[in-house]
Amino acid sequence: DLQRNGAGLLVSHNVGFGVPDAGVAVNLAKHWHNRPPRTEVTVKATGLRVIHDDGLRVEVRGLRVPTDLESIPASPVDGLCPDTATASLKFVDVGLATSPIKDDLTGKAALIQRGDNYFVEKLAHVAEAGAAFAVIYNNTGDTERFVPNGADIHFTPIPAVFIGQSDGEALAAHLRQWFSTEGKLTLDTAGYSIEFGTPMICEHVRLRVKGSHARRGDLRITLVSPSGTRSVLQRLNNDTLSSLTEWDYYSVHHFFEPSVGTWQVEFSDQRPGVTGQINSVELTLFGVTIQDGDHDGLDDHWEQSALRSLTSRYTATDDPDGDGANNAREQIMGTDPLVAEPGSRVELAHWDDRLARLSWPAIDGVRYRIRAFDELGGIPAIDEEVIGIFPETTWFGPMGTGPRRFFSVEPFP
Question: Taking the alpha carbons of 101, 74, 234, 87 in that order, is the dihedral positive or negative?
């Protein structure tokens, strides 16, 4: 579920912001400017919100769809969840999906039967064939459902759900007769819209939830920022004993995002048997307050001094100097957004007896030429192309067998 947040930072619920590069961190620390003191602002929203039981559904539409198949209860696969309804797409029954699928499933929904191979393999096959989402049905237990999980399944690139045997077999039988049948995934949510008016650069957020639900683990709770970044504060889990009365949730996925606008909190129930309600929520933003009359996440004083104008066409995610660091990052670092940072530093390290490691500041998507020479002015022993990754790109290659080896890194024109 890799996404760019409102400040242009890549973030994922599986790996967060990624593994820190110690070399990058040290270089940043050398030029770090102290930030203003952190502050926190809390906004509260009240009003009873009823959370309907078992809210994840497969909605089926088409000719002569039986009433009991129009809205099929489903459990989430432990990966991407359809927080917003998918498009209504034509269903294709792919059977067990034990091997790669030759048919083009682009713009279609895959119906898959449980059995013979791992769930992650089934989902990989339909995703590689282009399916937009998948519905897996049980091969035993009539109405029994569970949550397919495992480390690898977190990285499945399409949303998927799991339905009971009786519903799945009935849907498969219907598809054999009515080929144009369509389906979509929907999630019944209850929530709050919170208006936040204090201009801040976010660092992290806290959501305090007050309500009643006998099984807190049944709930999925998400927070959507004004920039559109969705952070999952809680997903369906196996905690069936703890109740929800008052609980705090935190997220750092909104780092450096602008604060002003509508924050959306959404609650859903994804396991049958228990209903509940939310009485109130409190959203607290931690960060640095700024003057931000145009609500673009850039401090007005910084825009005037660095971008020369408050009416600049640039936003926080723009990179006017093309050095890979957007305005949000340049603002935090105190660097000039109109002058590219020098990228001439190349670091060489002996990785082991055979390998050398090169690292250098790079820009996303830029092509870099790496050459290695055993003699200056000679024919290169290595001549390769590498695509840059911001902020630092690394390359591993042979050290060579001679007494010395020279390396060069340069961007292609």
Answer: positive
